[in-house]
What we know:
Elements: H1 2-33, E1 64-73, E2 97-100, E3 108-110, H2 112-115, E4 119-124, E5 134-138, H3 142-148, E6 151-157
Parallel strand pairs: 1-5, 2-4
Antiparallel strand pairs: 1-6, 2-5, 3-4, 3-6
Amino acid sequence: MNKAKKYLISFTKKASQTLFATLVVAVLLVHSFYPQVVNAKTGEPVAPVARVTLPVASDRAPRKVTTVVATAYNSLAWQTDNTPFITASGTHTRHGVVAANFLPIGAHVRFPDVYGDTIFVVEDRMNKKYYRGRVDIWMEEYKDAKIFGAKRLKMEVF
Length: 158
């Protein structure tokens, strides 16, 4: 009995030391991959700043005003590729997403005749056959897209 007790105690010590070493290594690995911003002068960690949304269009004139043919699309497999809810920029489809091939990803646009001051962001691409003068506005419901149809709209680019 005494021999078994000694073995159990030594096994427990070794196991706890191994577990502790594994835990320390795991913490160091996680900490080394966790981004930390520090002050360059003092070396003190800086608390992360919340992402700020800047005003885009209401406070300035558009960079360009053009007329485009605007259509609507949905996240349906037959209207998109094999990832219907993911845009070309990698974001999820939602209200305010526009597909256009002739504008850069991230461009801000507005359709004042139909949507007033609502700002749309180019985050998706259309079929390659549609290049200049054509935009696709994402809509959640298929029936809304059918009702929207194809319209010639004034588009302001910011």
